[in-house]
Design brief:
24% of the residues lie in helices and 31% in strands. With 141 residues, the protein is of the alpha+beta class. Strands 3-2-1-9-4 form a five-stranded mixed sheet, with helices on one face.
Length: 141
Amino acid sequence: MAVWLIAAVMLMATVAPMRALAASVLVHIDLSDQEMQVSVGGRLVHTWPVSTARRGYRTPTGRYRPTRLARVWYSTIYDYAPMPYSIFFKGGYAIHGTTEIRNLGRPASHGCVRLHPDNARALFELIEANGKASTEIVIVP
């Protein structure tokens, strides 16, 4: 019995550090401020302006996990508009890059969360590296 207990403790000691390798990623989007903050392992690493839903549209609030990542994507609803580095989190809603960078910092989208393409790529690669299961997207009013 003692041998099994020692083996179990040794296994736990090896598995726990492997889980720690994938840091948790928190993507916090504030609709009022039109700002995204990205934290990794509890440490703030990025603060970026975003564009979310303009009048007549909505960006959903709540807590989500990424459901799908697409490095290259085109809107199937809005004239095949490019959505580079898409991080889908609720149905067709995604965080993605935009060519309309002049509108960042104010509501301008049909509901998605738009980022500068360089920032969208950085976020996409961060989530890709850490895993969708280790990422939480929080959107507040």
